[in-house]
Amino acid sequence: MNVTTVFKKTVLMLMLLIVSTVIYAHGERNQEPFLRMKTLQWYDVKWSVKNEATIKVNDELILEGKVHFFSRWPQVINKPDTIFLANATPGPVFIREESYMNEVPMIQSTGVEVGEVYDFRVKLKARIPGRHHVHPMINVESAGGLVGPGIWVNVEGDADDFVYSVETRTGQTIENLGTYATGNVYKWHAIWAAIAAFWLIWWIRRPLLIQRYLLVKDGQWGKLITLTDKKMGATLMVVIIGLLIYANSITREAYEYTIPLQGGRAVVDVVPNSDKGLITVKNKRAEYYLPGRTVTIDAEITNNHNLPIRIGEFTSANLRFINKALPYAVAGLDEGYPEELVAGASLGIDDDTSIMPGETKRVLIDATDVAWEIERLSSLLNDPDSSYGGLLFFYDSNGKRIIKEVYGQILPTFKK
Fold first, then answer.
1. Where do the domains of the chain lie, and which CATH numbers do they carry?
2. 201-239 residue pLDDT tens
């Protein structure tokens, strides 16, 4: 490679750095479609601020809503026997002050039942300035984080102004937990670093590699570790044990009451759902029409309710498709929900008339939007398990909402 070629490549790289802009990525789009469609279905999600709102360092933000654990949980990942409610943000830009599931504090992990719905609430506090995407998230043991819908939040101010004060069980007030006892942290890190540096210098003060390799090769083990080395090792061991005993004693004196790290699990009871048997949905056929970015579901719906019902919404992987001909469904669309996750076109239903009590009706449902591509959900056709999952929201004649799962195999098609 000559000098001219190197110069040209260097100039090109500099130009790219100059003209390039900041790229924001939605990490949840990297998750496989079956993970997003057949694990958690988030709905009624609300944020205490609007999308693209601006708040200041130390301001609070609340996320709350409902999460449905899909009954047809994928076989390739662990069941949600151990989960932890969290938040998904680009690093520790917020701190989590409180979190609840069904009003039970989620300081610890818990287990849930598939097919059930749980209320959640997460209270955050802004810590680092910037433009951040904020989601609710549930971590599942051995499966990782499963992310809900998110909004953009702009945080202004100075990170050095962040303060997180708490009151201990003994009544002591800690003004700022972020800087509490940092002097002790620095001091003990310095002590252990000094001991480690001394031990390292003790061995590298003499030739290490070649000469010691030759001693090993010749079997002269006695010269590798001398009597002085053994004495120094024993002395250092006594010093370290003495330091640990001393550190433990002054800690006990400074903090009379201590609580060990907790290894237990919280217990979250399922809220009884009296609507489970009111509607039955059977998937007869499902297709993804690639040119039209449309998921078509052929479903058989049985109304066991004592009132007529209509389909109001289909939601899957945080995408929402609304039947705009049904006022109850339009009213149920939260104002603060991310616009990019709400389909612009109405939910297509070939027969949108009411399903009467005791009636069974075969219905074709079309969910059309470019979001299937943008959210990388169309790649479900490349999954080893080409199946889909979602929720159908029904409304009876009194406006009561009844939610049912819909799931099944899905096939690609290039013709309508």
1. 31-170 (2.60.120.570), 182-254 (1.10.287.710), 279-413 (2.60.40.1580)
2. 998 887 777 888 888 888 887 778 888 989 999 999 999
